Amino acid sequence: MRFRNHLRLDNGQSIFEVLIAISIATLIIGSAVTAIIVSMRSGTSTVLSQKGYAIANGTLNNVRSFAESNWADLYALSKGDSYKYYLSVTATSSTSTTLGISNGTTTVSFTSTSTGENIDYTNWFTVDNVSRDSSDWIAGSGTGDPTTQKITAHTSWTVNGQTKQIDLISYLSKIRTSAVTFTSWAGSSGVTTPVTRTTMDYYSITNATITASGAITF
Amino acid sequence: MVVFVRSALGVDSNINSTNKWAWNDIAGWIDFYNGGSGAKVDENKVSRWGVFDDNTSTYVALHCADVPTTGAYDCPPNFGIANDDGSLSGYAWSDEYGWISFSGLSPAYAVSIDATGDFQGFAWNDILGWISFNCLNDHNAGTGGVQSHCTADGFNDYKVSTSWLPTSTVVISENYLESTTFDTGATDGFAINSIYWEGTLAAGSLIGFQLAVATSTDFTGVDFIGPDNSVSTVYTATDADGAEAVIVNSLYHHPFESGYRYFRYRVYLDKSYTSPVVTKVSVNWTK
After folding, report:
1. Domain final position from B162, B196, B226
2. Pair A182, A191: CB distance under 8 Å
3. Are residues B42 and B106 in the same domain?
């Protein structure tokens, strides 16, 4: 009798219970799927940004390398955001590649049939003059410093209809300086032959005098 | 002759409220700000007055055009300190000490206002002797006088300073040395960064520099220019200790312009009393 009662109590789930279970399962699975999609999109965006950053950083490194030996060419470029440049290969040899500056932008493409990736990165850099304040800090205004240039590397790409862009800024300085020191002007006047080291000669003197120790005074 | 009573209210003086002191070994400090009612400099004259600090009822009247409005004084005779773009001349008056001369020839002396508004030099009174307007002036060095107070008592920074400035902030001296031509060897241009100098820059004297750059060794017709791209200005030395790097505004010297590889410099000197001396010049550039 007790066994039969037991069977009577456990004879299956009601439809109402089943519907509740399905609803709960749907909520759980739906949330999980949404989280996975967001995570995948975020991961994809991060990868794209990392590639964009790497491209921009590579541009800065190449411009820095170019400036080492071609500062005058870099300094002569038109300044400001309106003037876009990129580095292009102008000559190659078995041991080296020579870069030159071209006007406009260049494109770096990443495509993969296996992953379906197909992204174009537009790449360029701009140049700005630098001013320094009275403390020699870089400032918005002050004395122009032609031995320092502000380089901004730009990389942009489009994903899901939205344009993304990374701008990396670096200040390049021509730090190798030379100096010549004159400690006496006790030599001859009227000298016009150019010198490449210190000399006691000079071109002319007007009203001022040279002391016995070779100093200039008046 | 003249009795003055301090009467002006408010601030009529354009003397600096801190840098307001002149010194005399006998009379002591003279305050030319006088709480705002002291001396006033304009483009033609120095008017109003200074007051002796040890007796604030005694004055140095600077010009008949503007003296205390109360009290007994006689103008005429018209006296006053004339201002010729910073070069002062004429007589002031003190009831206690008489005429005070702001310039003279034997020996040569004068009071002047430099490009920063600082008074320089000495005035002379037959009773008081020299009246110093700036402690940095080197007059009677080693023989006492105002200089002894300046160095011995540690008052090494007193001066009279005004907000009025000469119109010609820097006057190019006719006394200069022009260097020989220096070849930097640059093939793509160069940028001059600074001029370092050593020597002695006495108060009231001038040491300045100009630079010229060229594409050839022939500097005929090449302008020597100063910090504002003008042939009328110089890179001015300011360090009284005589060791200073003067930053060059190289944008005006054809920086990194192809073909430019030669430069010359000029050292300009001028003085009011003590001669400036340049013992070292170092030119720094980037190529």
Report:
1. B162
2. no
3. yes
> The pTM is what?
0.59
| Among candidates B176, B177, B282 on the partner chain, residue whose Cβ is nearest the Cβ of A180 | B282
Give the tens place of pLDDT for each residue, A47-97.
889 999 999 999 999 999 999 888 999 999 999 999 999 999 988 988 888
**Which sequence spans correspond to the domains of chain A?**
25-173, 178-218
Q: Find out whether B279 and B226 touch, Cβ atoms under 8 Å.
A: no
Q: Closest Cα of chain A to B269: distance in Å? A: 6
Residue contact B178–A204, C-beta within 8 A: yes
Going B191 to B197 to B202 to B208, the CA torsion angle's sign is negative
**pLDDT tens digit sequence for B160-190:** 999 998 875 445 678 999 999 999 999 889 9
Residues of chain A with Cβ-Cβ distance to B184 below 8 Å are 178
Q: Cα–Cα distances in Å, from A77 out to A50, A73, A129?
A: 29, 7, 10
Chain A: residue whose CA lies nearest to B270: A218
Tell me which residue in A175, A183, A193 faces B279 most closely, judged by beta carbons.
Answer: A183
The values of phi and psi at residue B144, to 5°, are: 80, -145
- Do residue B202 and residue B109 come from a single domain? no
Is there a single domain that holds both residue B108 and residue B35?
yes
Q: What range defines the domain where residue B19 resides?
A: 15-162
ipTM above 0.85, yes or no: no
Decide if B1 is inside a domain: no
Regarding whether B240 and B191 lie in a shared domain, the answer is yes
